[in-house]
Amino acid sequence: MKTSEIETATDLQLLARYARDRAEDAFAELVRRHLGLVHSAALRQVGSPQLAEEVAQSVFTDLARNAAKLRPGVGVASALSAWLYQVTRRTAIDVVRREARRQWREQIATDLNAMNATTNDWAHIEPLLDDAMDALDATDRTAVLLRYFENMSLREVGATLGTSDDAAQKRVSRAVERLREFFAQRGVRIGTSGLVVVISAHAVQAAPVGLAVTISTAAVLAATTMTTSVTSTTITTIAMTTLQKAVLVATLVAVVGTGIYQVREVSILRRRVEALQLAQAPLVEQNAQLKSDNESLANRLAQADKLSYVSSDRLRELLRLRGEVGVLRRQQRESERVAAAQAKTAEVTGRPAAGATLPPNQPLPFQVQLVLDQPGEDAELMTNSASGDGGETLYVGKTPLLDYTAISSATVVRNPASGAAEISVEFSPEGRELFAAVTKENINKRLAIVLDGHLYSAPRIRSEITGGKAQITGSFTDAEASELAAKINELVGSR
């Protein structure tokens, strides 16, 4: 076929000739005509020229592979461009998902490598850490201590230092960089993220249970003994006149009485220490169990990354494990605070504190659960708060499809039409993929949006939602919406 004939032939004629004769000139003309359309559509969706070229190559490869199957009225109708556009869209979506999974797996691998390296890095950093901290100025040193030694959030660090969250973040980052430079000058090479992990994991270790009470008791006794010793020494220097002898006898009687009293007080204090240690024993056991659960969940999280792909169920499991690890860490810190408070109370009141337990688990501020058609063991009755008085009662699955661990932030917004308060949530990269999978798997079903243990809405899913955002409507007051958004952000910020 001549060049002029190729240029005037229709797309379907060129496609038929390529399918029949494998004419490369006919296929090259098809590529020339439609490459701009395919590449532009791909670039808009993947955002990367390199990935857009990959998508375009895949689309025209599919065209060549399926040329014999494409006929007028079958798949392409009368416009090949429509077929190419649809294939481009599907291919671009697959590429974007594959790229997101790859980046997510690389991030998990980086985090795990940093965690595995902390033990070896700590052996080099430990001897130099206190010198490095001393080299910082007072404000930077305080910022690092609050953030990584005391495990405070950036919001708490900023409040303590009297600055904003952003200013606290900049100061902490600058201080960590100075620490890294200090170690580098002494031959210890470690990245900024690795240094943060090492300091957070090893800088502060829990002191032995009961040590605070023992130290307090010993200090009180030492002060009392020193006072008695000074009194006795003063008395022996007085000249032994008759009158002074009488005074001395009376003084010795007082000293003996004081000694007996001190022995009795020491015995009482020892009994108090023993009682306090017994009261703290349940907290020690809870702390040990929390650490064990934490390590178990971390191991399961590491093993999950060995999969060659991430399904929606596996992604949901990973986010759940990450959330449980965060909860366990907070419970462990709360356990240590309760133990310290008990020790201080016993020291002040002189009575052993009653054995305390950790506070009960509170409802999570955000959960997405499936509305079931029938009751069952895995269902609970919940009333839709958005329906007003006598609202709709639904059977809601107890197992959440996703929760706050999939969220990166929550904000209060206004409905443009009604002006009512609503909560807008933005999902993390993993959460966006999981929410898309959840909505795709449950088309035409209802999802229950549960906030702080209450059902606020139960929309029916009509199509897959891939935007990474969700708008939660309900009968919120401004105060309720602000409080719920704050609870979500507080848990998100503590992970």
SSE layout and pairings?
Blueprint: H1 3-8, H2 11-21, H3 24-46, H4 49-65, H5 80-135, H6 138-149, H7 154-161, H8 165-185, H9 192-202, H10 211-236, H11 242-304, H12 312-349, E1 367-372, E2 379-383, E3 393-397, E4 402-403, E5 407-414, E6 421-427, H13 429-441, E7 447-451, E8 454-457, E9 469-472, H14 478-493
Antiparallel strand pairs: 1-3, 1-4, 1-7, 2-3, 5-6, 6-9, 7-8
Descriptive report:
With 495 residues, the chain is an alpha+beta fold. The chain has four domains: 3-101, Rna Polymerase Sigma Factor, Chain: A (Orthogonal Bundle), CATH 1.10.1740.10; 107-202, Winged helix-like DNA-binding domain superfamily/Winged helix DNA-binding domain (Arc Repressor Mutant, subunit A); 211-349; 367-493, Gyrase A, domain 2 (2-Layer Sandwich), CATH 3.30.1360.200. It has helices at residues 3-8, 11-21, 24-46, 49-65, 80-135, 138-149, 154-161, 165-185, 192-202, 211-236, 242-304, 312-349, 429-441, 478-493; strands at residues 367-372, 379-383, 393-397, 402-403, 407-414, 421-427, 447-451, 454-457, 469-472. Strands 1, 2, 3, 4, 7 and 8 form a six-stranded antiparallel β-sheet that branches. A hairpin with a 2-residue loop joins β7 and β8 (454-457). α6 packs across α8 (165-185). The chain starts with a helix and ends with a helix. The relative contact order is 0.06. Mean pLDDT is 77; it is low at 230-241.
